[in-house]
Design a protein that fits this description.
97 residues
């Protein structure tokens, strides 16, 4: 069970592989989506698997970029650069309204 942080109502963890193009794009897209739907009420924890392979291994991450929504539950995982906004919105149960 993910613990809600004191500062944000939406918590994401993004696993990246250094400055790889898809990793950079995933971070940019995640920030854009979060800003649009959550304003400033979100937190993104970026884990570089090249610098912290043990953390990725412990979390079962075998491919990057991988985005996890940790809070609110249930945990949601999205693989890829988040370029397909419709699929991301669907996975996160967001409405375009």
């Amino acid at each position: 069970m993910a613990k809600k942080p004191n500062t944000a109502n939406r918590v994401f963890r993004l696993y990246v592989a250094g400055e790889a193009p898809n990793s950079t794009l995933a971070l940019r897209n995640l920030r854009t989506i979060c800003k649009k739907f959550y304003g400033d009420d979100f937190q993104i924890d970026v884990v570089d698997v090249l610098l912290s392979p043990e953390r990725a291994w412990a979390d079962g991450v075998i491919v990057t970029p991988l985005t996890m929504r940790l809070y609110p539950e249930p945990t949601v995982q999205i693989i890829g650069n988040l370029n397909n906004t419709d699929q991301v919105m669907s996975a996160l149960n967001l409405s375009a309204e």
